[in-house]
Design goal:
heterodimer; B: mainly alpha; two-stranded antiparallel sheet; globular
Chain lengths: 124, 495
Amino acid sequence: MLSKLVGNYEETAAIILFCIGFSTLLFNRNLIKKIIGMDIMDSSIYLFLASQGYITGRKAPIIVDGVESMEAYINPIPAGLVLTGIVVSVSVSALMMALSIRLYHRYHTLELDRIVALAGKEEV
Amino acid sequence: MTLVQNFPAFSILLTIICAVITSVLKRKSASVLTTLVIFVNLVMNFMVMIYTIRTGESYVYMMGHFPAPWGNEIRAGIFETVTMTVLLFVILFSYLGGYRWSAARIEPSKYNLYCVMVELSMLALLALIYTNDLFTAYVFIEISTLAAAGLVMAKQNGRSLVAGVRYMIMNLVGSSLFLLGVVILYTITGHLLMVPIHDAVAQLAETQEYRIPLDVTVALISVGLGMKSALYPFEKWVPGAYSNTTPTSSAMLSSIVSKGYIFLLIKIYIRVIGLPVIDMLGITDVMFVFGAAGMIMGSVNAIRAKTTRMMIAYSSVAQIGYIFFAIGLGTADGLMVALWHLIAHAATKSMLFISCAELNDASGNTHMRTALKGAFYRSPLAAAVFSLGAVNLVGLPLLSVFVTKFMMGQAAVALGGRHMVITLICLAVSTLLNLGYFMNTTVSFFVRDEASYTVHTPARLTKFSLIGFIALNLILGLCAAPIYEILLTGLSRFA
């Protein structure tokens, strides 16, 4: 079991990071820390995905010396997926940060429990 | 390929282009363009629906004619087109029906952005229903989340901002779980398109290779999409999100946004993993338990709700419970009931939210349930529409939700054993609870507590939308048998 975890160290690291990000996003009460947790969680998935595309001894799939054999290059699809995923993550992070700024200006705190309590006292 | 077969792709492209244009328009033009794009999409999807029903076949459309893995595919069949057409009717009536309140409560300079969010929600729904690629599904899940967050925060007051944050947090957890599930599935199968994954998964199941990753994948995807569609106990964001925003947003969130995720889950179970493998993995038992808990707890919370919108919001949790309960039966009949209830609930819940807004307005702009006493005499049309929605959700014969309950019971009896007993008990208890809170509210509409009432006339668009909702719900109820048959044909060709 341990040898499998060490042998697949990229995937192991990705899963550990995912758990850290997941618990931070769910259980931390600070909005900025939640956003950091969310980014760690997303990055861990991209690390997992990128490690799946990498094949030891092969190059990035850019033809420079006229070598067209598929055997010479790593799998480019995970890299493409990671790029798309990063764009999505950036958009989500931007929205969450903008929202945090709005809430901070309104309630002067970033603690979600406190914000919820203050908002609950406002009129419907 | 005929012109009609291009329409699903055209719908997606048209909505993207219109969303970009809408972002720079003024309020009125933005609203007209949004209505127009919903209507055009409706007409196009209606034509594709007729085409697929006539031919009885589904087809795969390669975007840009690039084959997999470089290109992207969409698939249109009876299952997808019928669902999409009904949901587009719901979007049209929800948008027009709630226009009056949206225009009044959203800053005029930002109204065009609200229209963009409506269009993006529709875009995400189109993509989630038609896509044949799991990673594309993930991208549109995130687009749907961002657009829905915009809809939740439309009023820009403290409560709606907090509701938006809570919505985002829960939904982002769901999206990440889904993405991790898709990534592991890609790792063990090497594909992202649904059909090749299905073949690879069937082979893996036969050889029992990668059994644990396959279990983990199905669990991650199911829980991720369950969290996003407000499956109990992940529904904590629902009351705030549905009750602190505009009526259009509430109607769209409950009827459109959550339904896209559920449709995707049904699609993944049938077209990606396959029902025999799903049955082997046992994930449906978990859905069955969560669904049952949602059916009961949603209704219990609805009874305790003080405001009408909160009651309808919790009722949504109960109805989502019905859908997951039906999925949890783990049979083709169960999935068919889930899809039927998805459509029936979408048409009914949006109608309840719009009519509730009209009733609240007529009753002195209050949201309290107790203030709706005598509402029928103040706003007869809205009270009648709300009552129709309420009796439908309770399960009155000749209406669409009765078909859900009847077919769910039949599917459970066919299954036998403990599934049958639990289903019949849950259906009975849930129906009694539904009766408790809906009838309590509806009966109060007809109680005269004043000597005379001023009749409140709904705005023209609201009236049009309420009549449209009545027609849609009556068609779904009275023509349930032929529509159900058509969907059954679609299901048989869905795999």
